[in-house]
Amino acid sequence: MQGSYAEYIKLPESNALKLADTISYDEGALVEPSTVALHALELVRFRGGEDVAIIGGGTIGLLTCEWAKILGARRVFIFDLDSEMLELSKKFGADVTLNTNDAKFYDTAMEKTSQKGFAYVFDAAGVDFTFKLAFRLAGTKSSICYVGIPNRELSYPADVFFNLYKKEFQLTGSLMSFSAPFPGKEWDLTLKQLEAGKLKFYEGLILNRLPLRDIALAQGLFRTPGATRGKIMLFD
Asked: What pLDDT, in 10s, does the model give residues 132-178?
């Protein structure tokens, strides 16, 4: 049936997953963003022991960081221009945080990786600058996954695009949060790791709580640049 944001909804049984009694409603609401992050790691056939770059320290970027650490990443670098989100990323396992407003952030990243770059690069921001940055941060024979979705035209200067040939990296985009058979191991693993206490949704991902009657206000916050950085929890 059509409709959502209601006290009760009707949906196919196959679309519903049962939460363990130990999982709160706040945690349950963050399961889907977690599966988006994990799906990106699945797409690049992620293996531990390597350095990882995550561009964008929002909800998806932070959860990608946490999953990369759970799955054995050597070090995770978070790139963002928000100092508060960079600080929060440390709770999610970030080993190195770099503010892209710093003129020397790229040089610092290259120095810390001995000029080799990163085996895995995830762009969770989805803007022109970060798409190009991913090409520069990628190491030889690496993997790049675009998770953030752009809403404007993109252009790549020839010297930036040439990195694709020079480094021979694998490039993919990620849109889904599930795999076959539906809903896939992204959902199963998220629920299992959350119940086991290995996956943690730290405070800071949900920055606003509003009653359901104020849904128009909540949606307006997302349309206003800088009004909110994290998720908004609606309650009834």
From this structure: 999 999 999 999 999 999 988 999 999 999 999 999 999 999 999 99
Q: How many residues does the chain have?
A: 236
User: Is residue 25 in a domain?
Assistant: no
**pLDDT tens digit string along 198-216?**
999 998 899 888 998 999 9
The domain in which residue 215 lies consists of 206-236
Q: Are residues 49 and 165 in the same domain?
A: yes
Domain stops at, among 173, 188, 220: 173
- Three-state secondary structure call for residue 98: strand
Per-residue burial over 89-101, b = 16 or more CB atoms within 10 Å of its CB, e = otherwise? beebbbbbbbbbe
The span from the CA of 121 to the CA of 204, in Å, is 24
Average pLDDT over residues 34-53: 98
- The total number of structural domains in the chain stands at 2
